[in-house]
Amino acid sequence: MIIVDDKLSLEALAGRLGTNDVVATTWAFHFRLLRALEDQTRLGRLTRGSTAQLPRAAAEPPEAILQVLDPRVITAEAADLAARQGLNLIAAELVASAVHYGATVHLSRPNVGRRWPEVMAAEGVTLRIV
Hints:
CATH architecture: 3-Layer(aba) Sandwich
Strand content: 5-15%
Distance between the termini: 16 Å
Helix content: 40-55%
Oligomer: single chain
CATH class: Alpha Beta
Number of domains: 1
CATH superfamily: 5'-nuclease
Largest sheet: 5 strands, parallel
Strand order of the largest sheet: 3-2-1-4-5
């Protein structure tokens, strides 16, 4: 399994990710993707070139294409990570999910937090920056 951010989730939904691995995203990244697609007043890197069907597909993605991970199974782990490592919600959920599922994390460069590579390495999570 690979866990991806909002931008790479969009790439998976569009069939452009190019992997045979199970692709998943966290609830927080899924929320950010849906928020970007729903905001008609802004045109950013996620919404540029999106189609009318994309918000519907993103809201309920086919599991064979993109799984949205349930945060309830990692909430205690995420809270512990946030306290130990000084992480925000998005980072704590991401790292806890990767540890819990034994997944590799793939992130687009703009989504890599300043300390995320260091924290992921300390927690035994493989990070690939795309």
